[in-house]
Amino acid sequence: MKKYLVLFSLGASIFACKSQPKTETSIVNYPITHKSEIVDTYFEIPVADPYRWLEDDMSEETGAWVKAQNEVTFNYLEKIPFREALKQRLEKLWNYEKLGSPFKEGNYTYFYKNNGLQNQYVIYRKQGEGSEEVFLDPNTFSEDGTTSLAGLSFTKDGSLAAYLISEGGSDWRKAIVINAQTKEVVEDTLTDIKFSGISWKGNEGFYYSSYDKPEGSELSAKTDQHKVYYHKLGTSQKEDQLVYGGVDAEKHRYIGASVSEDERYLQISAAVSTSGNKLFIKDLSKKDSPLVPIIEDTDSDNYIIENEGSKLYIVTNRNAPNKRIVTVNADNPAEENWVDFIPETENVLTAGAGGGYFFAEYMVDAISKVLQYDYEGNLIREVRLPGVGSASGFGGKKENKEFYFSFTNYIIPGSSFKYNVETGEYTSYWKPSIDFNSDDYESNQFFYTSKDGTKVPMIITHKKGLELNGKNPTILYGYGGFNISLTPAFSIANAVWLEQGGIYAVPNLRGGGEYGKKWHDAGTKMQKQNVFDDFIAAAEYLIDNKYTSSDYLAVRGGSNGGLLVGATMTQRPDLMKVALPAVGVLDMLRYHTFTAGAGWAYDYGTSEDSKEMFEYLKGYSPVHTIKEGVEYPATLVTTGDHDDRVVPAHSFKFAAELQDKQSGKNPTLIRIETNAGHGAGTPVSKTIEQYADIFAFTLYNMGFEKLPY
Question: What pTM was computed for the model?
Answer without folding.
Answer: 0.88
